[in-house]
Amino acid sequence: MDDATRTSSPRWPRVRTPDPTLGRSSRPEMKPVSVERVPGAPAHAKADVDPPTKPKRQRIVLDDGPVAPVRPYLHSRSELAQQTSWGATLIADQIHGLLKIGVLFALLTVAVVGGLPLVMWLLPDFARLEVVGVPLAWLLLGVAPFPVLGGIGLLFVRVTERHERAFVDMIEHRG
């Protein structure tokens, strides 16, 4: 590719001409201005003016008044915010507690929902029972799990929120 093609092609950057003011001072040249002198005050007017006096010194105190006591829970909050080893231990304990609650509720859910088909398999006579013309197995496996799962979910949320509230109360030293 020759230089003529390179410069005419829009893909190649064009070479800009340098700024003519480059390297020069950005201030315009200052020309001296002529100042007209004002005549002084007459001699009889100078006697009437009092000499300037210094203002009386005043002491200025910048005080906001009494300082509020330091809250005791700020130490624990700063430990958490600064991610110190103590703060990391507090967070790890919180996560461990929530994990334990989650695993327990998962096992409860598996036992309740997974136990229904097991009961139907172990007790075939129980599975053949009908309620209002509908097999009991269909009712227990198709309808009953939804309110049970909703109840387990609600209970899980309440227990975890109680655990988190206890953690916050411990951090803020609320008995």
UniProtKB/TrEMBL annotation:
Keyword Membrane listed: yes
Disordered, as annotated region: 1-59
Key word Transmembrane helix present: yes
Keywords: Membrane, Transmembrane, Transmembrane helix
Membrane-crossing residue ranges in chain numbering: 101-123, 135-157
Biased composition (Polar residues): 1-10
Superkingdom per UniProt: Bacteria
Name this protein carries in UniProt: Uncharacterized protein
